[in-house]
Amino acid sequence: xxxxxxxxxxxxxxxxxxxxxxxxxxxxxxxxxxxxxxxxxxxxxxxxxxxxxxxxxxxxxxxxxxxxxxxxxxxxxxxxxxxxxxxxxxxxxxxxxxxxxxxxxxxxxxxxxxxxxxxxxxxxxxxxxxxxxxxxxxxxxxxxxxxxxxxxxxxxxxxxxxxxxxxxxxxxxxxxxxxxxxxxxxxxxxxxxxxxxxxxxxxxxxxxxxxxxxxxxxxxxxxxxxxxxxxxxxxxxxxxxxxxxxxxxxxxxxxxxxxxxxxxxxxxxxxxxxxxxxxxxxxxxxxxxxxxxxxxxxxxxxxxxxxxxxxxxxxxxxxxxxxxxxxxxxxxxxxxxxxxxxxxxxxxxxxxxxxxxxxxxxxxxxxxxxxxxxxxxxxxxxxxxxxxxxxxxxxxxxxxxxxxxxxxxxxxxxxxxxxxxxxxxxxxxxxxxxxxxxxxxxxxxxxxxxxxxxxxxxxxxxxxxxxxxxxxxxxxxxxxxxxxxxxxxxxxxxxxxxxxxxx
Length: 503
Description:
Elements: H1 2-17, E1 20-24, E2 29-32, E3 39-42, E4 48-51, E5 55-57, E6 63-65, E7 77-84, E8 87-91, E9 97-101, E10 114-120, E11 124-128, E12 134-139, H2 140-154, E13 158-162, E14 165-169, H3 189-216, H4 224-253, H5 266-303, H6 308-319, E15 323-327, E16 332-336, H7 347-369, H8 373-398, H9 406-429, H10 439-471, H11 479-499
Parallel strand pairs: 1-3
Antiparallel strand pairs: 1-4, 2-3, 5-6, 7-8, 7-10, 8-9, 9-12, 10-11, 11-12, 13-14, 15-16
């Protein structure tokens, strides 16, 4: 017996001299022996001695020497408990210091260790005090991980839908890895079918509104009221091209599931092609109508010398929507096309604009319904305003078509009104198969968005903006009308640009 006591005393003395922790792997019991830097923990496994540094600096800049207990197994006790202020710190069997939650207050009889430690929910460690009450032990590593996780949640991914494709920003690299497989989402089909008719009515109000108002109120196309609607619509079209379509196209072409493009300027090249084709259509139409007019005017100038024929020539010119004057002495017709293209209220010009808007609107319909339910209502509200504003822009130009019959005007307005609901119906039909991250889907959406952007850039800037302000009535309008018009133009741009955050 005396020999065993001598051996134990020798072991403790050696540990104290080397500033080490002696662990004899306990069975849920621990005893503080001697000085603060030696803790004897009784366990059922073989003894192991691990050397540890004992200098430690807390967050409160307080130097404190303590021992750390390490073990290869799960911690069953925390020891070396001490206070900094009102917070009690202890050390687990792995040498990790942590905080005791729900333990004793700072006092002389506060426990220096807790036993019976166990894990709840595979993450939270609980121990027992002398009276058998549970306290929680939060290690510094767990606290740091929890804080980091909380910070990550606050600065985590922000996902939203653009053109039916989920676009995420923020988060870590692992979160942002390309996931190109189809994502199964919850879709409320009856809700989508019901809201299809809401979009139909909203689009119709926008496109038919200007025509109905000008007819009922007998508004002049040069009035301030019509100018406000017209310039607001011009701003809508320009913002749609730049903020919505080009942005959407860029998101498609830069999607990680698209892979690396062999030609990086694919999207902008297609946009340029859209501008060129819109120009080419109007130029060819202008040359064809011009040639037809020249042939008619030449024939009449040589065969009709009577002054009464001049009125016939002027009437024919009006049917072709040309600004025409007649020389009464020579019977010669002179054309004045302003900037050299069709004037903006020509049916060819308006049809070109409508084609660009329709391409865009059918995509809106398809991609609206494929958005997940968590984002669908928000996107739907945005699309309502989007369609109404675009309808006003198109309807204000359709209303100006003097040469078009009322039936043709209604047909053009109806075309815009139904195209988005048709897109929604198509989208509803392909919900079970639609994969917004499929490469072929991204190419199709990117191509149509880029091309539509080009068409609307030409129509919005050249046929609408430049024509009204450089060659139209606003080129010489009074200061009040000019200020109101420019303000309406800016409001249209601003509102549509704000909507670009969500759609």
